[in-house]
Amino acid sequence: MANQIVMPKMSDTMEEGVVVKWLKREGDRVASGDALAEIETDKAVLELEATTTGVLRKILAQEDSKVPVGQLLAVIGAEGEDISSLIGGASSPPIQAPLPETIAPSMSSAAPLSRPAPSSESAARQEPPITRERIDASPLARRMAEEAGIDIARVPGTGPGGRVVKRDIEAFLAQLRSQHPGPPAPHVPPTAPAVEATPSLQKTPVSVQAAGGDHTEHELSMMRKTIARRMALSKTTAPHFYITTEIDMEPAIALRQSLNELAAAEAKISFNDMILKAVANALRQYPRMNVSYADDKIRLHQRVHISMAVALDDGLITPIIRDCDRKSLGEVAREAKALSERARARRLKPEDYTGGTFSVSNLGMYDVEDFGAIINPPEAAILAVGTVKQQPVVVGGQLSIGHRMKATLSGDHRAIDGATAAQFLQIVKRLLEQPLTLML
User: Fold this and answer.
1) How much is the pTM?
2) Containing domain of residue 385, as a range?
3) How far is Cα 269 from Cα 158, in angstroms, rounded to an integer?
4) Catalytic amino acids?
5) Closest CA to 361 of 428, 316, 411
6) C-alpha span between 93 and 109 (Å, rounded)
7) Do residues 5 and 35 make contact, with C-beta atoms less than 8 angstroms apart?
8) Total structural domains within the chain
9) What CATH number did the domain enclosing 331 receive?
């Protein structure tokens, strides 16, 4: 009996997915558990597995296409079986035509430039130069460009918002082969200086003519849409309050240096590892902070699962170190590094980023002194950590030079109060100022 394969809901925030690559083709035999395709969600790229055995009779979603959760992707059935009732006469979606664009001649011009629209003949003769702050491309297109050794910035994108997709790479390679028979052209860096994109903007900028001047619009990625929705919900529904403390990091610096002198290169301890471990131990000592709020109820968690914020090009994801309080500092360091690498490669699994009980966000590596973070619902608190800064301090009535770090706790006032949060923050401060306790 034939079975429909639909776009699954791979995370609690997922509303649609992108078919990155089909790993099986129509007519291939598949067994239950075989990987059918790679699906890009709002958080990672995951494999879609077959739930039945048979022949992949029909593929209904093209690579690089966005598909809502629950929509039909493919049909698996017996060879020769009538599947017309399952697909309802549907066919593979047509290739999407390139979106019309108006490209700004210069983003640094003092005044907007106006010029008559070119005739169709002149438009065919020349194309306006495309300036991109960051190249938006599907994972499959990036992989194909890397394997071919070409610079993806040279490839015109015809996907939504100028996104570079599979067909663009194929067309570019075909053009190269026609112009230069032989091996593919070597990697050539863009002639324009690279401009680092803001983390909040992932899509290729499309310049739009507007009264009074040009502006650029950026189509949001699935990750960015999810972040926008969840953070707006958190900020508007959870009454945030903030408390900040300053921590003497001299003992932590000394301990870290001693440990790293003995550790192998891949096992080095970072300040962030020590902070994660201190927060986890503090939650174990003070479980009133290890809570979440939902449906007018407070849930007290028996286990400590720390969500650590990892910045990606198009947003933020929070992979989880489970039972962080029960792990050694070295184990926390190794797991944090592995999770960060998988997060940046978009290879996290749903269980890697769901079920956290408390979040830590560290911007110290960017020389940020202090900041207030937005709570990651349904968690009730998040700790925002700044840089370890050398500054004048008064110790025992004497002026000296020390290293201090500011940490700001954002709390949901529906679940916790200021005094509760302050007592918890005192424990975190004590653990970091007496870091040998992290080794116990």
Assistant:
1) 0.65
2) 239-439
3) 45
4) 413
5) 316
6) 41
7) no
8) 3
9) 3.30.559.10
